[in-house]
Design brief:
By secondary structure, this protein is α+β, with helices and mostly antiparallel strands. The chain has one domain. It is built from three helices and five strands, in the order αββββαβα. Strands 2-1-5 form a three-stranded antiparallel β-sheet. The protein has a two-stranded antiparallel ribbon with strand order 3-4. A hairpin with a 2-residue loop joins β1 and β2.
């Protein structure tokens, strides 16, 4: 069984409640990763998750944890 579905449900619930998302930026630019069929920018529902990533993966310490309101997040999806 994949853990993706429960993680997505938790993401949706937390974002709907908190009305914000978090991502890494580099000099104000989103980190973009190649994915099947295009590029992707990862977002998380918790600042703590990004701080954990920075602790476990030193290369991410060079990036800024950036918070976006839910409205700004939706504008990025356009």
């Amino acid at each position: 069984m994949s853990i993706a579905a429960p993680q997505y449900d938790k993401f949706r619930e937390q974002v709907a409640t908190e009305e914000r998302v978090f991502t890494f930026t580099d000099d104000g630019d989103f980190l973009v990763y190649p994915a099947r069929g295009g590029d992707t920018v990862p977002f998380w529902s918790s600042r703590a998750r990004l701080l954990t990533i920075q602790k476990r993966m030193p290369k991410y310490q060079a990036y800024t944890v950036t918070e976006l309101s839910l409205a700004d997040f939706f504008r990025q999806l356009e």
